[in-house]
Task: inverse folding
């Protein structure tokens, strides 16, 4: 296997890790409006992802950096053609991070309410736009003979891509609801499981249509296997959720996300960004990659750094593995008042 093929796989793995991890904290952000009934319950939801949300975003930074270094032509065409939606995603991630940190800095009702609204919208919008972006990448976009994007932002708002946005939004919200059930106790846990069923059914309906559409347009035998795994895992996650097996349900919803991402990348290969104007103008792992020497240096660096990052993130999740509920929020408030 050539190094550019290896890096295509590694970038696919990075995006899979990002959607698996950031997917559930986007979902929890959306649930601050759909599930939480009052401020203590919103605090519970935010606290479930408080120790990990920023670490989850490392996967996005790494995926973007790896694309820039391994496939500069892909990076340049992607970020120029998708400039506006990617800028909106970036702004949402910035505001979302500020909201997590500033929400509790002042006690006024309007202050906290406004930051909580920012958490909701800045979780919902990126969850939708990532699906739109990847729906377009797989479907193909207007790329000319100079390997440059020649379309407009309106070309990105096609039915296939918009359906992809609904898939990621509903699937991440389901993933977040299952994570909430796994991390909480009491009434909020039961309501999270009930909401997970409703959202999961909507996610399954959207995902089946989108994945079958993608398979019919650009799929192959390998992507068909990934499609089957994604659908089976999503159905199994719904069954496990109904049985009260939150751990299994979370693992299976994550597997569904991973298989869906794998299907998209398997549908792409050897292209990295197909041209809808002429397939000969498509960006591929060959014409979009860096030099072999650059890829070799990157491979050594990734081999050393990746295990360290994985161990650290795994340790973080282990340390903050306990369930929480509104009683813990009340206890924290009482302790603060006593001081």
Result:
């Amino acid at each position: 296997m050539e190094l550019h093929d290896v890096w295509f796989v590694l970038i696919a793995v990075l995006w899979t890790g990002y959607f698996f991890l950031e997917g559930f904290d986007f979902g929890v952000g959306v649930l601050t409006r759909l599930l939480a009934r009052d401020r203590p319950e919103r605090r519970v939801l935010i606290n479930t992802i408080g120790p990990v949300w920023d670490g989850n975003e490392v996967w996005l930074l790494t995926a973007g950096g790896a694309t820039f270094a391994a496939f500069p032509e892909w990076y340049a065409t992607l970020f120029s053609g998708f400039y506006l939606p990617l800028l909106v995603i970036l702004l949402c991630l910035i505001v979302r991070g500020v909201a997590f940190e500033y929400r509790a800095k002042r006690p006024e009702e309007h202050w906290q309410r406004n930051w909580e609204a920012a958490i909701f919208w800045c979780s919902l919008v990126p969850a939708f736009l990532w699906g739109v972006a990847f729906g377009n990448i797989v479907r193909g976009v207007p790329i000319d003979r100079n390997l440059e994007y020649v379309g407009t932002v309106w070309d990105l708002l096609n039915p296939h891509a918009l359906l992809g946005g609904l898939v990621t939004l509903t699937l991440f919200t389901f993933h977040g609801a299952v994570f909430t059930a796994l991390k909480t106790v009491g009434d909020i846990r039961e309501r999270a499981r009930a909401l997970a069923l409703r959202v999961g059914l909507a996610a399954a309906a959207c995902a089946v249509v989108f994945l079958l559409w993608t398979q019919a347009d650009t799929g192959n035998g390998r992507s068909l296997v990934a499609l089957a795994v994604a659908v089976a895992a999503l159905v199994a996650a719904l069954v496990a959720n109904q049985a009260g097996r939150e751990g299994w349900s979370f693992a299976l919803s994550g597997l569904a996300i991973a298989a869906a991402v794998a299907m998209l990348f398997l549908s792409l290969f050897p292209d990295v960004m197909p041209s809808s104007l002429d397939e000969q103008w498509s960006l591929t792992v060959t014409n979009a990659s860096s030099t072999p020497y650059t890829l070799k240096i990157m491979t050594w660096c990734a081999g050393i750094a990746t295990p360290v990052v994985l161990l650290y993130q795994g340790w973080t999740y282990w340390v903050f593995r306990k369930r929480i509920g509104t009683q813990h929020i009340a206890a924290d408030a009482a302790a603060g008042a006593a001081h």
About this structure: The longest strand covers residues 271-273. Residues 331-339 have pLDDT under 50 and may be disordered. The longest helix spans residues 3-34.
